[in-house]
Design brief:
Low-confidence stretches: none
Structural class: alpha+beta
Mean pLDDT: 91
Bound molecules: protoporphyrin IX containing FE
Radius of gyration: 20 Å
Number of domains: 2
Distance between the termini: 24 Å
Strand content: 15-25%
Number of helices: 4
Order of helices and strands: HEEEEHHHEEEE
Length: 168
């Protein structure tokens, strides 16, 4: 489960469904940074480039490489705040983060218990995306699912032993 968590987090780094988020500045605000004060006048619209931050080589070594180990227990602690934010950040961050992560894990556990998931020639690699607000793969996202052979009695997975609901 820990590695699945790392895989999902790394997938959300490379392919964040929300590529950017925004804030409206309701009062004059000054942020102090290492390179000096940054002043945001009242009324400013601020776009926060989530995907840009996720690929910034200043914060991520070899950012184009899919490497779930960035999110293992040791490395996760080293990630600089606000450089990884697939669910946004602060008081208006995604309210559904925990539900979304749980749903993804449940779906993958059920799928992987029954099928081997393989790349499909219908989806190009590297992936291509449509120009829109959300990260949407061009032509949809396709993969192949090969049923796993049943294991001998006594070595069955919970799905095969009938402890999980059968796939619809
Ligand atoms: C992979 C799945 C999801 C991703 C990547 C995602 C991402 C985001 C992001 C980036 C924001 C903006 C946060 C900010 O500006 O700081 C947001 C807001 C929000 N999300 Fe999600 N979300 C996901 C799933 C969900 C689910 C499952 C729900 C509800 C069940 C949900 C409900 C909301 C709501 C209500 C807001 C607005 C929060 C506010 O403005 O206070 N999201 N989400």
């Amino acid at each position: 489960m820990k590695y699945l968590d790392s895989v999902i987090k790394e997938s959300l780094r490379m392919y964040p469904p929300a590529v950017e988020t925004a804030r409206f500045c309701s009062a004059d605000t000054t942020i102090t940074s290492a390179s000096g004060d940054i002043v945001f006048p009242k009324g400013s619209d601020i776009l926060i480039p989530i995907m840009g931050l996720h690929y910034d080589p200043q914060y991520w070594e070899d950012p184009n490489k899919f490497n779930p180990d960035r999110f293992n227990e040791d490395n996760q602690r080293k990630i600089q705040h606000f450089t990884y934010m697939p669910f946004g950040a602060g008081p208006r961050m995604c309210i559904g983060e925990r539900l979304a992560l749980l749903e993804m894990k449940m779906a993958l556990v059920h799928l992987l218990a029954r099928f081997e998931l393989l790349a499909s020639a219908r989806s190009p690699y590297p992936a291509r995306f449509q120009a829109c607000f959300n990260l949407t793969p061009e032509g949809g996202f396709w993969c192949r699912a090969r049923p796993r052979p049943p294991r001998p009695l006594g070595q069955q997975r919970p799905s095969e032993a009938g402890e999980l609901p059968a796939p619809a």
